[in-house]
Amino acid sequence: MGEERVLVVDDDPTVSDVVRRYLERAGYTVTLATDGYEALSAYASAKPDLVVLDLMLPGLDGLEVCRRLRGGADGVPIIMLTALGEEVDRVLGLQLGADDYVTKPFSPRELVLRVQSVLRRASPPAPGTRPLADGDLVVDVARRVAKLRGAELALTVREFDLLVFFMGAPGQAFRRGQLLESVWGWNFGDQSTVTVHVRRLREKIEDDPASPKRIQTVWGVGYRYEPGNTDGDPVGGS
């Protein structure tokens, strides 16, 4: 784990210093940035494996930084830091492709656990893990590559994990709480996180995200994945 690099972006030096010390104690190499422009520069030079990003930044705010990082092709995991009352910004950050979030005030130990969880999921599984296929959608789990009609999909860590989970349990209905625990590793938390990620995933794998055929809504329950259902009627929308 000592080789893994984390970029921490926060304009509060006390928060940055505490987070840095906890992450370094856990074996990570840490780079600090205090505003959005510095964050983009540090990202280009440090090439981190994960970014811890405060949304409230001077100059270029965290949402714009997230948008620009997600405009690249490397899919670096992003964990947002948000204040308790910033639910709208948090949801927008998830829509922009952030993988996880921690609400301020937070426990540094909790943040370290979230970092470990996201990086663990971003790591390729053991060789020999079988690919998953559903018609023109093919997922190479070992290489963490998903392709639709031969074109590689730009999926975040959580989107990829969610797709693999769905495809590994076709036809089963899952509550949002079950998905939160199985894919995110949380036994509590804001279930709107799941809703946002499902919406983003549909935008990438469905011909018509407003009338999804693969990831279907089960009203009053949650979602289920229907393989090979490209011509059937959808169960529901978002």
Automatic annotation (TrEMBL):
Keywords: DNA-binding, Phosphoprotein, Transcription, Transcription regulation, Two-component regulatory system
Domain OmpR/PhoB-type, chain residue ranges per copy: 129-227
Single Gene Ontology BP annotation: regulation of DNA-templated transcription
GO molecular function: phosphorelay response regulator activity; transcription cis-regulatory region binding
Superkingdom of the organism of origin: Bacteria
Positions of the Response regulatory domain: 5-119
Keyword Nucleotide-binding: no
A Gene Ontology term for the protein's cellular component: cytosol
Chain positions with 4-aspartylphosphate modification: 54
DNA-binding found in the keyword field: yes
DNA-binding region extent: 129-227
Name the UniProt record assigns to this protein: DNA-binding response OmpR family regulator
